[in-house]
Design a protein that fits this description.
Blueprint: E1 7-8, E2 28-30, E3 43-48, H1 63-71, E4 83-89, H2 95-111, E5 115-120, H3 126-131, E6 140-145, H4 159-168, E7 175-181, H5 190-198, E8 202-204, H6 206-211, H7 216-221, E9 225-229, H8 251-263, E10 269-273, H9 284-300, E11 314-320, E12 327-333, E13 339-344, E14 352-357, H10 359-366, H11 372-381
Parallel strand pairs: 2-4, 3-4, 3-5, 5-10, 6-7, 6-9, 7-8, 9-10
Antiparallel strand pairs: 1-4, 11-12, 12-13, 13-14
Length: about 375
């Protein structure tokens, strides 16, 4: 497939080599005159400037380009980097056309094991990101990081306020699990959170992330794709959205979550949405997002390929329980000390799934209590 027909090249100022040979500018292949060979790349950056899904309309300048300007001046991390920048996506004739265009492009990249990094545009563009997974012939999981839970019902709501509802209600359903992270409970109606609980999906509000950010790691590790709204960050760290919010993730916490996402062996696309450069007078938010991208890339190149649970890279723990089930099986990676939990369907023993968990889940089981993650996964398995 000729992906070049969907993209505009970058301006010359965004493709120049850096005077410092150690910066990312000298390691990324960017689209100016020749379209990059994305098939040979590990990661592909895609700039988005589609705002028809936002009630606030489009900003005056291209947000992805503002972030790029700072991202490429950052130092290259450890190891090799095979990163291409495909340029800026040309929006479709309609917003729905843009969703379908993203579906086709991301789906093609997934087929060649190239991880798309989507940058810019309104948060509803993750619907196109989601659609790319429809033809994988397996259930997928995803996580979103946002101050709100975008599940508006009424027909007059902007797509960016209702995209999550559209994803969860998509037919045919190919979604296994969903996790909502860093929402602010005073911004979310109680019935919305109750609906997620009824669907057996996991939520982790901002206060829980702040208390122990490690709780977010298993949720991000289970995701096939992640979408991150810049509005999840507090305004002082990322003045790039409206209305301003004095509460939210710090830039350090956001970078940590980006690292978790990049380090996830299973994750195959990452979206960073909602950045409005018009509000970002000093470029602080652009620098924050550029650093988040750096941590995502660095996390990717620290992946360990921890997927073969029968290999010697894992320690298997069997924990007896007083009720049903009589036993739980955990796996611990020797190198990273990450934990997984094996869940066998109570209705059909042929159905089994190994899901990320935490040491706390193992500890709870060792005390004779069923971990909540087992209960939720059991419900999803049916």
């Amino acid at each position: 497939m000729n992906l070049a027909i969907f993209f505009d090249p970058l301006r010359e100022e965004l493709t120049a080599a850096s005077a410092a040979s150690t910066t990312l500018a000298n390691y990324a292949t960017r689209f100016q005159e020749t379209f990059p060979d994305w098939r040979a790349a590990d990661l592909a950056l895609i700039g988005l400037d589609e705002w028809r899904g936002s009630a606030a309309g489009a900003p005056a300048t291209h947000g992805a380009d503002e972030v790029r300007r700072r991202f490429y001046q950052l130092q290259k991390g450890s190891g090799s980097v095979r990163l291409v920048d495909l340029g800026n996506l040309r929006p479709g004739l309609t917003l729905e056309d843009t969703y379908l265009r993203l579906r086709e492009i991301i789906g093609t990249l997934l087929e060649h094991n190239t991880v798309p990094i989507l940058l810019g545009g309104s948060h509803d563009l993750d619907y196109g990101q989601f659609l790319a997974y429809e033809n994988l012939d397996r259930p997928v999981s995803f996580a979103t990081v946002d101050s709100h839970v975008d599940m508006a019902e009424h027909d007059t709501a902007a797509p960016e306020a209702a995209h999550l509802r559209r994803i969860l209600m998509h037919e045919p359903s190919f979604l296994f699990n969903f996790a909502q992270l860093a929402h602010q409970q005073y911004l979310v109606a109680a019935d919305v959170l109750a609906a997620l609980e009824k669907l057996h999906f996991e939520t982790l509000r901002l206060g829980q992330v702040r208390d122990d950010i490690r709780q977010a790691e298993p949720l991000l590790r289970q995701a096939d794709f992640v979408s991150f709204d810049v509005a999840a960050l507090r305004w002082n760290d990322a003045p790039a959205y409206s209305p301003a919010n004095p509460f939210g993730l710090t830039n350090e916490e956001a970078a940590k979550l980006a690292w978790y996402a990049g380090h996830n062996d299973q994750l195959s696309s990452f979206g960073l949405y909602g950045y409005r450069p018009d509000y970002d007078v000093q470029g602080l938010a652009a620098s924050t997002l550029a650093t988040m991208l750096w941590y995502f890339v660095e996390g990717y190149y620290h992946r360990r390929g921890e997927t073969d649970f029968q290999s010697r890279r894992f320690i298997r723990y069997a924990v007896g329980l007083p009720g049903s089930p009589a036993k739980l099986v955990f796996y611990k990676a020797k190198r990273t000390e990450k934990w997984w939990l094996e869940v066998e369907s109570m209705a059909n023993s042929d159905i089994k799934r190994i899901v990320p968990c935490s040491y706390e889940d193992y500890f709870r089981a060792a005390q004779g209590d069923l971990p909540n993650r087992w209960i939720l996964t059991q419900a999803l398995l049916g």
